[in-house]
Amino acid sequence: MRKDVVYEANRSFNPVFRQKKSIFKVIKTVFLITFSFCMIYPLYWLFISAFKSTDEFFQFPYALPSEWTFDNFVRAWNLADLGGAMINSTVVTVVGTIFTVFLGALTAYVLSRFSFKWKGFIMLFFLLGMLIPIHSTLVPLFSIMNEIGMLNTYWALILPYTAFELPIAIFLITAYMSSIPKEMEEAAVIDGAGYWGIFFRIMLPMTVPAMATVAILAFLRYWNEYIFALVFINDASLKTLPLSLSIFSDGYSTDYSLTMAAMAIAVIPTVIMYVFFQEQIMKGMVAGSVKG
Amino acid sequence: MQDILKAKHWIIISLLPALLLYTFIVIVPIFWSSYYGFFKWSGMNEPSFIGWANYLEVVNDPIFWRALKNNMIIVVASVFGQVPIALLLALMLRQTTLFQRFVRSAVFLPTVISTVVVGLIWGYIYNPEFGIVNALLEMIGLESWTRAWLSDPDVNMYAVSIPIIWNYIGPYLIIFIAAIQNIPTEIEDAAKMDGANGFRKLFYITLPMMWTTIKVAVVLCISGSLKAFDQVFVMTGGGPAQSTELLATYMYNNTFMTYRYGYGSAVSTMIIIVSLILILISQILMKRKEEKGMGI
């Protein structure tokens, strides 16, 4: 590290090199600012447009609103029944996330702490699920659910969401549990605790960080999920936010600022989550995808 | 003995819920759809066995092949869009200053946005009346380039690829930043001492050290972009005249719009086969390159 500093210092005595370096730095900074702007712009445009009247939107589509009004938000909320959609999305997302975390942790506990004959096979079996394109299961799932009368219920979304998220949940939590030393459990066994006791009182509390990552990932995925909701939910009163949005935008296809307001309402919860749990979301998504 | 039995019992009971749920929802449908691919079935009547007819119809349908080709466009656009951009950014974002952290957050932001919103908002961005793409082209004097980006069959596949690229640069950026941070500082220091700098260090040290990660990213990118549906479905629905049809939209439009569940099952099976072949090919290609890389 020390040598590094000396080395850099020597080089920066050379004026040409220094100048070249600073030009390079300026180019880099300009590039990064421009690029970030392009990444944020669509969302920025969404939010400013949501505050404009439709006339103003057509006249000055890119300017800031001349006056900031919440009319669009109120109208979109009422017309699209976004309140109902938000409740549906919340129910499906929360119940699905709880299922995912609990089943993931339980399975991970068994896979990380017990050795048995079929263990390797079961791990591989769960791994396989990450290769399967979700949309190729739509037709059979639709027929099966139709058969057992599960279409147009919350379960039609909760169960598939959980099932498809399980592999990632299991791998993330298993990896974390394997790194926890076994002393605590051994002490608990001596104290006469059963497996459920160990799982609930020792393993779960110690695995909270991994479970939090899984929960955040599951939450985002379920909240934003579209294709299952599109196929399995027809009942207007059960529609989730993404589904309501796509239908609403068809129905009010010319009232752009109204649709923008509806979208803004749907996006706000995830943006808030992002602001608070940024690091965890980034790390979790990467860990989840690399494991796959 | 009692303990072993108890443990066995417990293992079975605690594995069962996850295994059952996963098996019935993720695994069984694959076999189910390859089986129902042999039937003519509208969802209402009794399915009737028609042999290979559905599968033959799929492979003889030019639209299926167009959908496959379009899917390949998305795959290629993602691999050559997301991975190099993410890599370039990662090389620039090695510090943890406030500015660099801001850029990182900005790049990752689209990943958490609902894909439906992404589709809708990009639909507006491409809108010929008020979309910013045409407005920018006019501003810089390229009126002749303006067009209806999503309905012109010459360009609309490329137009729908851009939002997908935009959507998922973030995860690859984070993967690459982590990989760069994992390069031991001794190696970098040694390279500097030997006078390797700038591009030479990049090509002889940094990139070779990241090669495994780049491979993983490419494979992830291929399997991820094969799943593309939401954004394109919301932007174009596969149209106009099926010019932006992807495998997933083709399956959806042929099953749930026309009530041909047998045919849809056959398409689903083909999607699984195509995905597995592509993932296999990408794995093999990557492996061969690695051997070559080792030789250098």
Structural description of this entry:
The complex is a heterodimer of chains A (292) and B (296). Chain A contains 14 helices and no strands. The N terminus of chain A is likely disordered. Chain A folds into two domains: 70 residues, no CATH class; 219 residues, MetI-like fold. Chain A is an all-alpha fold and 292 residues long. In chain A, helix 4 crosses helix 14, helix 11 packs antiparallel against helix 14 and helix 13 packs antiparallel against helix 14. The radius of gyration of chain A is 25 Å and the shape is globular. Chain B is an all-alpha fold and 296 residues long. Chain B has a single domain, classed as MetI-like fold. Helix content of chain B is 74%, strand content 1%. Chain B has a two-stranded antiparallel ribbon. In chain B, helix 3 packs across helix 8 and helix 3 packs across helix 12. The radius of gyration of chain B is 24 Å and the shape is globular. Classes of the chains: A mainly alpha (292), B mainly alpha (296). Chains A and B meet through helix 1, helix 2, helix 5, helix 6 and helix 7 of A and helix 1, helix 4, helix 5, helix 8 and helix 9 of B.
Number of DSSP helical runs of chain B:
13
User: If you average the pLDDT of chain A, what whole number results?
Assistant: 87
Residue windows where pLDDT falls under 50 for at least 5 positions of chain B: 292-296
Which pair of protein chains has the largest interface, and what are the residue counts?
Answer: A-B, 92 and 89 residues
User: At the first level of CATH, what is the class of the largest domain in chain A?
Assistant: Mainly Alpha
- What is the alpha-carbon Rg of chain A in Å? 25 Å
Binned strand content of chain A: under 5%
- The number of E-state strands of chain B comes to 2
CATH topology of chain B: MetI-like fold
The Cα radius of gyration of chain B reads 24 Å
